[in-house]
Amino acid sequence: MPYKHDSSLTLFFFVLVILLYCVTAPSAFAQTTIPTVENYCAVVDSRIMDSSTAPGEDFYEYACGSWLKHTVLPEGMQSYGYYDLSDQTNEFRLQQLCTGHLTMENEADLVESLNNFSVSAFAAGDSDAMRSRQQELVRSLTEAESMDQLQEAIAELHCEGIDVLFSLYSPLPWETLPGNPLHFRQATPGFISRKNYPVAQHIDEKSEYLLQESAVSLLHMAGYPVDKAEALAMTVLAIDERLAFASMTSAEAWITANTLHLMSADELAELLQGWDWEQYFDKLGLENVERINVGQPEYFKELQQVLETSSLEELKAYSAWYLLQSFAKYTFLPETAAWNHLLTSMSVLSRSTQPDTRFASFVAEREIPEILGQVYLAEWFPADLEKDVNVIIENLRTAFITRLESSSVFRGSARRRAIRKIQALQFVVGGPLCPDYFTSLGFDSDQFLLNILKARSVRRKHLLASIGTNPEPNRWWVDSYSTNAWYSNAQVKITLPAGAVLQLYNPDADRATQYGMLGATIAHEMTHALDSDGRKYGVDGRPVGVWARMKEWRSTKRFQHEAEKLVSFYSKYSVLDSVALDGERMLAENLADLGGVNIALDGLRIHLANDGIEDIPPETLQRFFLAYAQKWREIFTDEALHTRARGWHAPPRYRTNLVLMNCTSFYNAFQIQPGQAMYLPPEKRVVIW
Fold first, then answer.
1. How far apart are CA 293 and CA 291, in angstroms?
2. Is 389 exposed, middle or buried (0-12, 13-18, 19+ CB in 10 A)?
3. CB atoms within 10 A of CB 473
C-alpha cells in the first residue's frame, strides 16, 4: 500500500525538521541526517475527501473537501496546494543529497564534489574569509583609474561568470538562433525593482532606511570610508533604480518576441556608444563577432545614459556595490545582514538564517546544478522508473493517434498531418548528465566562495567557446530536479525533468492514479502540439505554409467552432461571485486539460488491456478521476483567486469540475444524472481530441 499523507502533520514535521537543521553545527556535517520522505503526494488519499458532498454536485469538493476545509494558508503565502506540498518533498530530496548520506553506490567522483561543496557552504559563516575574498573581487573595480580600466575589469569579471552592468546569456530553446550568436541581456536589478515586484511600490520608511543603510554598509565593505560610502549610497541606488525601470519584468522577458533583437557589431556599438567593444571582445577571447542578440535594447539605452551622466567614481561605486549585493545571499556577514533582511522581509529572498543543510542545498541548486542534477538522477530516478514512464508515454501516444483517427474535427489532410506530428513528437525524460568540463571539477571543503567562482568560471568558458557553433541538438535546458514540464513548438518536443515526473508519479501507486496524475499532465502537453498555436508548426518545427493551411480550412473551422463553445462554457462561471473566468485567455490550457483527461483515460485502458484487463473496473475508473482532482487541491486568498481567474489557467475547482463535465466517462464512473450541478447534456459537451 502506498503511503497516504496527512497534510497538517506533514507541514508540522517539515517545520520541525527545518528547525532541527537550524541548530545543526557546521562541524556536525558528517552526522547530519535528513529523513527519507515518501512521495505522499502522488497517491489518492481518502482522508482528504468530503463524502458529505455528492460527486455530481461538486466533484472537486467531494475529492478534496476535507483538505480544503482544514488546511490553513501558511503565513506570507497567497496560495497553497498540492504542488507546494510536492515542492517541499523535492526540497527534502535535494537537502538529503547535500548531507552525504546517500543510498547509491555509483557516481563517486560527483558525490565527493557535491559533499566538498556542501561542507564548504557550512563554512560560509567564516566572516573574515568571506569578507576578504569578496574585497579581492571588487578591488579591480574600485582601483580603476580610468573608464577604460573599469571596462577592462568588468570584462574580466564577465569572463569568470560574474556579471556587472549587463549579462552574458545562454538562450532558452525557443530563443536559440542559427549559428548560436552571442546573447546579451539586462543585469538583474540589484534593488527590488518597483516594476518587477509590486510589493516594493508600497515600501515603507523603515525599509527605505534599511535600503540606504545596507548600501552604505556594502560600500564600506568595498573599501570606501564611511563618510564617502554615505555620500555615494543614494547615487548608487538611483542608478540601480534607473536601470531597474528600464528592465523587462520576468513575464515580459518570457515572451520570445520581446527578447529577440539580432544586430550587427556596428549596431551594438551604436546602441551602447560608451563601451569599448573591441577591448571587451578581445578580453572575452572572441574574434570577428558579427551578430549579437540583445535581449532588452531599452535597458542598454538607459545604460548608455547612465554612462554619459555618471562620473567614473559613481560608476566604480555602483559596480562594486552591485557585485557585493549579488553575492550577499551567500553570506552571513554583518555588512550584508541589512540587505538580506530587506529582501527576506519583502519575500524576494528565502533562505536559512545560518549555514546549514538547507543553505547548502540553496547554494548548490544555483551554482552547481550540473553536479547536483546528476546525483539527483542517480539517487531518485532509477532506470526502471524511467522505463515505466516511457511505457506510459507510448500508451498515451497510441491513445492520442487512435482518437485522431476517429476525430470529427480533424479530417483529410489535417488529420494525416496531425497524426504524423504526434508520431514524430519527441520526449526527453529525466535530466542531463553532468558535462565533461564539470565532471572533473574538484572543490575544496574549506573554500566556499572559491568553489562558487570555480563553477561559474568553467561554465562561462564553455558558453564563450560555444559562440558561433551550432546549438547542441540534445541539450537539456533545465536541471533534472526542475518541477516544470513543457512542450516546444520549435523542437516538437516535450521535456519531462525527473523532478516534474516525481511530483506526479509514485511507482507503488495503482495505474489509475499514475494515469490520472502524471498521464493527464503528459497528455495535456501533447495536445499543445495541435492547439491553435501548435497547429501553425509542422513536424519539423517550422511554420506551416499558406497552401497547407488553406487545404485544412474546413478542419480549422470545425476546431474553432468547438473552441468557441468551450470559451462560452468557461466564461459563464465566476469566482467569489464577482470575477468571471476569462474563457478566451484560458482557451489553450482548457483545451489541453480536457484533451489530457480523455487521452490519459484511453492510455490507462491500453495499459490495463496489455496487462490482461479488458474492461476497467468501476472503482479503478473512479480512482482515475479522484487522482486527477486531488492534484489540483489548492487554497487561496480572495485576491489571489481573483488573479487566477484572469490568468492563463482556470482556478483549480473549475480546472477540475468544468473539464470533467465534458468527459462522458466521468458520468459513467459516478452515475451523474440530469438535475445535478455537474450534469451537462451530451450535445453540449465539447470533444476535440
1. 7
2. buried
3. 6
Residue 562 and residue 687: Cα distance in Å, rounded? 7
pLDDT tens-digit profile of 621-635? 999 999 999 999 999
C-alpha distances in Å from residue 625, one per residue of 56, 392, 677: 13, 17, 17
Cβ–Cβ < 8 Å for 594, 656: no
Using CA atoms of 503, 35, 478, 448 in order, give the dihedral in degrees to the nearest 10: 160
Q: Are 269 and 217 in contact (CB under 8 A)?
A: no
Task: Please choose, from the candidates 261, 257, 252, the residue with its C-alpha nearest in 3D space to the C-alpha of residue 183.
Answer: 261
Q: Give me the residue label for grid cell 541606488.
A: 237
* Residue in 446, 346, 386, 587 with CA at minimum distance from that of residue 126: 446
DSSP of 290-339: -EEEES-HHHHHHHHHHHHHS-HHHHHHHHHHHHHHHHHTT---HHHHHH
User: Residue 250: how many CA atoms within 13 Å on its side-chain side?
Assistant: 8
DSSP state of 601: H
Of residues 325, 140, 141, the one with CA closest to residue 233: 325
What pLDDT score was predicted for residue 197?
45
pTM value > 0.85: yes
Contact 411, 555 (CB under 8 A): yes
Inter-axis angle of helices 357-367 and 82-97, nearest 10: 90
Instruction: Give 183-211 as a 3 state SS string.
Output: EEEECCCCCCCCCCCHHHHHCCHHHHHHH
pLDDT for 550: 77
In sequence order, the β-bridge partners of residue 185 are 167
- Number of neighbouring beta carbons within 10 Å of residue 342: 23
Q: Which residues on adjacent β-strands are paired with residue 292?
A: 182, 263
192: closest CA among 50, 410, 349, 334? 349
Q: Report the helix count and the strand count for the chain, using DSSP H and E.
A: 31, 11
Q: Average pLDDT, stretch 341-352? A: 74
